[in-house]
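Limitations

Structures in this collection are predictions, not experimental determinations, and the ligand pose is part of the prediction. Treat each record accordingly. The example that follows, with zinc ion as the small molecule, is included so readers can see exactly what is and is not provided: the inputs are given verbatim, and the output is the predicted complex.
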Amino acid sequence: MTREIKIHNNLTRKKETFQTIEAGKVKFYSCGPTTYDFLHIGNARAFVVGDLFNRVLKAFGYDVTFVRNFTDVDDKIIARAKEVNQDAIKFADHWVTEVQKDMESLGMRPATHTPKVSETMPEIIQMIQDIIKNGSGYVVDGEVLFNVPTMPDYGKLSKKDIDGLQSGIRVEVDAHKKHPTDFVLWKPAKEGEASWDSPWGKGRPGWHIECSAMAKKFLGNTLDLHHGGIDLMFPHHENEIAQSEAANKCGFCNYWAHNEFLNFGTEKMSKSLGNVITIRKFVEAYGGQVLRHVLLSVHYRARLEWTDEVLQRAMDEVKRIHEFVIETKRYKANGSGPIDPEIEKCIEKMMEELSNDFNSAGALGQYFTFLRYTKNAKDNLSEASLKQIHKTNEFMRETLGFVNIDPESVMAEFKKQEQNTSNSDVDAAWIEGLIEERKVAKASKNWARADEIRKELMAKKIELKDNPDGSSTWKILGL
Ligand code: AMP
Ligand code: ZN
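Predicted complex:
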């Protein structure tokens, strides 16, 4: 038996009851990271949301096949590997290992399959051949392009139409394309670059085709659910749909869900803007449990603004939850009555929230209602109520992952941080010196140095706030 769940489907822009193709089974694909550096906590939001979907669907009784890829063949990877004189695939592989460590530190459950592009070449090439055979792909000088106008419903996810897109594209760049919106499926490799043999010569795939090919390899022609960050909706997901539907001649995916951004100030946290905090640095400073909490304590479709208050609140809540879980282990039952209805209803209430488009924030709210009630009722708990309390904590751990398997270790980590903060004699002159240096770096548009300084301070739990008048103030993030 599975429990009903409603999902906001971006294909229809409506919240709909989730109907799977096969009863009780979910074919779920989530776009994974490009591996060439440490991921930032904005990326983490996308991966933790994918993890939430996987956990909740499983808790609701579904047999979930969850695929999350690693993009290990990409222009940025090739460029970075060249800089350090390394083989691109080996370089990317090193970063796959680092990313996996980060994912584990966030309490993410492993996906069923985690394919890499470099290991999916035969399927990618086959799919491109199918697209050409079915009249949607064409070859120009060793390059294969997807002919967008062959798909009359192109734009059905992003709600863009081909005419509108065409007028926004500069024509001179696209002389070799049949249509300005056409995109690359396979590109010839330059001398010395990683390449694979193909019917069109040595080359490598364009970005979009990998997800279509990996989804087909592990999930078949039609998926139940597809997820990624909101920035992937166009063109990446739109192109995935076009490719898969052209190759397989059937619908690609029934439900599309996208998480909103994590913003830093008013801007998206992103590498190109240089306003990133890496997962690794954050977890070293505050622990993975806190980051997971920050990212899932708001609904995945709501924007999340990164502020000191958000961090502080997450720390307080993680502490409260883990103190409570440890405390409940010491509770003694008092009598053999039925389960207290106030305690009993929490799991059901949390399920209700989660069945409403994975409302993790709502579920957390329900848990805190239960926590407050239980603390007050602790001297008067029947055996059955006590069992139910443990069951509720376990449910929280399974679904949101907000209860660590080892709550004592989370509290020990907080203690250690507290000691470090109180022992550290913060050198104000050193901070002021760095602030001045950053000001100079910013004035000369040396954003890399300015960013480095922010990170250097952040590593010591010192947060900078840029004021409208150009000055910066700092404070130690309290614990
Ligand atoms: P990338 O490696 O850049 O392709 O990004 C991997 C995933 O992270 C994608 O699903 C992106 O949409 C997502 N992502 C990147 N930046 C952010 C952000 N600031 N907030 C939320 N998701 C993001
Ligand atoms: Zn993808």
